[in-house]
Write the structure tokens for this entry.
Amino acid sequence: AEARARLSWDRRRGLELKGQTLVRDPRWHGAQADALETQVYIRDRQLFLEDVSLRRGESGRAWGELWLRFDPRADGEDFAMCFQGERLPIEVGLKAADLDLPVTGLGSGWVRLHGPYDRLKLEAEGQAESARVYGVAIPALRATLAYDLAEERIRIPELRCSESVEGLGRGEVPPSGLLALTGALELDLARQRWQGRLTGNVDSDRLGLGWARFQGWLDARLDGPWAQPFGPWTCPLGQLSLRGGRVFFGRQSLEGLE
């Protein structure tokens, strides 16, 4: 690490610091990047990290700012952080959040963490490309997220999955394509359980499943542990229903399955 700073103090303005920091190969809870740079300011009882820049590989980057206070505020806001990122490995972000989940891919989006120190809340919106979740391929995914750290509960009120980023849609425009799913999810981190629902068009080829290809309208409900043994696989606990199903056997197909 490299750092340089100028420090001053007087009775009227209190402590003031202005500096710059460069950290090479930074690590946090198993997550690692190539470089982290930031401007550092201390003004009286406040700390500011501005122009924060993180780089990983040729295309992965994140940027943002952080602000915190050393004394209580009347409005309860002691801490505020906002960051954006592009094409960063999802597994690295999960490690930084102390989550050990079998999820890989490239993620982009923004995250905001704020509140009093004992009741921090996080809001985020993100997009994933070329992801894999419990061994299932997810070509493109977008989600919004709310996380109350004190409750150890994550709520994902909107979840979209498609065969391409262009097919995800936005707002009132739904996902499109042979793989076009929407839903919502809630995770209880303390009990390692989740509950949610996902509905829409499904195509096993787009999901990278090594079975006979099938298509149809999927209604999937999760309610239980994140995963548990199921024969030779480890799968989430829940229910699946398929309507208008079609299974392909070479050039032939069996249609109308439910």
